[in-house]
Write a structure and sequence with these properties.
With about 90 residues, this protein is mainly alpha-helical. The chain contains 3 helices and 2 strands; from the N terminus they run H-H-E-E-H. A hairpin with a 2-residue loop joins strand 1 and strand 2. The chain is elongated, with a radius of gyration of 16 Å.
Length: about 90
């Protein structure tokens, strides 16, 4: 099973989980169909009992990590320390 783990310098999984579960609970189509009560944490790893929910979680967390990378790279370019922009 693919899991999202905490790493130094990136958003903690606990915070990503807060945003993920909030979005699932506050979006009607998801709130009616997604059951988050089966989540468990073991050895610092977040897993959901339902495979579909686990897949949604992993996709969400990967998207959050990608957004962080893009933001970091954009900020580095803004101050002139990132890779050059393609013309």
């Amino acid at each position: 099973m693919f899991v999202i783990k905490d790493r130094p310098g990136v958003m903690p999984t606990k915070l990503m989980r807060h945003y993920f579960e909030g979005a699932m609970n506050q979006t009607g189509v998801f709130a009616d169909r997604i059951h988050l009560d089966s989540s468990t944490e073991a050895d610092g790893t977040l897993t959901y009992g339902d495979d579909m929910v686990q897949m949604l979680w992993v996709g969400w967390a990967l998207g959050m990590r990608c957004a962080e990378r893009i933001d970091r790279e954009q900020r580095a370019q803004d101050v002139g320390i990132g890779p050059p922009q393609a013309a």
